Structures are given as C-alpha cells and as structure tokens.
Amino acid sequence: MGIFSWLQYDFMKYAFLAVLIITPLFGLMGTMIVNRKMAFFSDALGHSALTGIAVGVVFGVENTNASMAVFAIVFALLLNQISSRVAASTDTVISVFSSCSIALGLAILSKGGNFSRYSSILVGDILSITPQEIWYLIFIFGITLVFWMLGFNKLLAVSLNRTLAGSRHISVVWMENLFAVLTALIVMVSIKWVGILIINALLILPAASSRNISENMREYHFFSILFSMFSGVLGLVISYYVNVATGPAIVILASVIYFVTYGWGRKYNLF
Questions:
Q1: What is the reported pLDDT for 256?
Q2: Residues near 54 by Cβ (< 8 Å), separated by ≥ 6?
Q3: Which residue in 50, 96, 118, 143 has a CA-CA distance of 20 to 30 Å to 87?
Q4: What average pLDDT does this structure show over 50-64?
Q5: Rounded to an integer, what distance in angstroms lies between the CA atom of residue 179 and that of residue 29?
Q6: Are 14 and 129 in contact (CB under 8 A)?
C-alpha cells in the first residue's frame, strides 16, 4: 500500500482539494481574529449555525446552507453593533448571544426527536464534499483574497487603534462589518465539513501558533497559513489510515503545533 494510495478514491481527492482551499482561508483570517481578540466571536458564529438551520426549518427553506449563511451575517452584524454600544465587555455580550443562539437552535431542531438528522453538523464530514461545493469554496477564497489585498492595511489600523484609524479617514464601522460578514461566510460555508464543535479551533490555533514564533507581520501570516495547511493535509491523511473523523484529527495536530511553538517561543524569548 503506497503512501498516496488514498488519492485513488474520488471522495479523498475532493476532500484533499477542499483542505487545500479551506486551510489557507483559516490561516489568513485567523491572524486578524487573534489580533483583534475575536476568538469568542468566531465561536459564536459557529454556534449560530444551528439556529440558522432551525430558522430555515421553521420557514420551510429547503436549502439550509442559505438559511445558515443569512442568519450568520445578520448575527455577526448584530454582535458588532451591540458590542460597540453596551457597557459590558465584548466577551460577555458575545457569550450571552452565543448561548441564547445555540439553545434556541437546539430547542427547535430537537422538537419531535428530529435532532439526529442534524447531529452530523456537530463534527462535520469533509469526505462528503462534492465538486459543486468545492466551487463555492473557490468563490469565497477569491473574495477573501480581494478583500485582503484591498483592505488589509485599513483593517490592521482598525484592529490596532480605532480612534487613530478614524482620524486617518478610515470608515471603522464599515471595515469591522465587512470583516464580520466575511468571517461569517467562511464559517458557514465550511462548517458542514469541519463541524460546529471544532471550527473555532481551526481558525484560532494556526494563528496563535504563528504568533508564538513570528517577529513581524509577514512571518505571522506565512507561518499561520503554513501551519493551517500542514495540519489540514496531514490530519486528512492520518484520519484516512487511522479511521477517525478528519476534523478532530486536524485539530489535534494543530494543537500539537501550538504547544511546540509555545515552547520554542519561550525558549528563545520571542514573546
């Protein structure tokens, strides 16, 4: 049995392509999420997927992906607005909305004992991805690259100092909302194959690992994407041979990388 024997199967080829597209997105977006201390935000978006499905079921929407995406965008914009207006800490506000969202989704979907139909979304199944769905990922990948090339400097300024960014004639609210919407789309498009329980880890761990050893912004982005792709591809291969779920295998590898880079950074006083 050759080391690349898994590529003889179409479902593994599609999963491999999906990993090559999704992981750079996670690595790239994760850097800004970590920079802006938005770990709870991306986690809340993942939890809101259940509510998005529930809303679609209530209104008879056949395509639950569409209902998830629409709800996630509305949810992300609502969180942005409320977080900037209330006196409580952002983490507190996000935690409250996240808890309410997932409880509401679970309550609706479990009515009549039908939750088993949707339980697969908790851990995801990247092996079920289709060629058409890969095109969706490519589309989101293209949008993310355009946004990053045109808006990265402005978004970085906003993340460092909102007041200073505003004095530079940068539309702070507009940039924050654009980033929130893009994050919501990436989370919702990929959550079916990654899973609600671990999608936040895939967004945070590569960027956090990169931050442990990076000395400038270029290294920060490079290592985050590298760690994300490495753990994604290797996790996919290991899950095939060990016969475990792909998402958890990827997260375990990403966690190992984080602890290794943490030890490396501490040893060489990089943080």
A1: 95
A2: 104, 105, 107, 108, 109
A3: 50
A4: 79
A5: 9
A6: yes
Whole-number Cα distances in Å, 198 to 109, 194, 271: 20, 7, 27
Q: CA separation (Å) from 158 to 24, 208, 214?
A: 23, 20, 21
Q: Express each pLDDT in 216-235 by its tens digit.
A: 888 999 999 999 999 999 99
Contacts of 217 (CB under 8 A, 6+ apart): 156
Could you tell me which of 191, 201, 195, 183 has the C-alpha nearest to residue 143? 183
Sole residue written with tokens 């040893």:
267
With both helix axes pointing from N to C terminus, report the angle between 131-160 and 10-35 in degrees, rounded to the nearest 10: 10
pLDDT tens profile 180-199: 899 888 888 888 788 887 88
CB burial of residue 122 (10 Å; 0-12, 13-18, 19+): middle
Nearest C-alpha neighbor of 90 from the set 49, 26, 44, 47: 44
Q: Which two tokens stand for residue 53?
A: 């499905």
* pLDDT number for residue 112: 64
Q: Which CATH class is domain 5-267?
A: mainly alpha
The token duo for 130 is 């289709």
Q: What length is written for the chain? A: 271
Structure confidence by residue, pLDDT tens digits, 172-184: 888 888 998 998 8
Q: What is the pLDDT of residue 64?
A: 76
Query: Whole-angstrom Cα distance, residue 258 to residue 206?
Result: 7
Nearest to 163 by CA among 84, 86, 270: 84
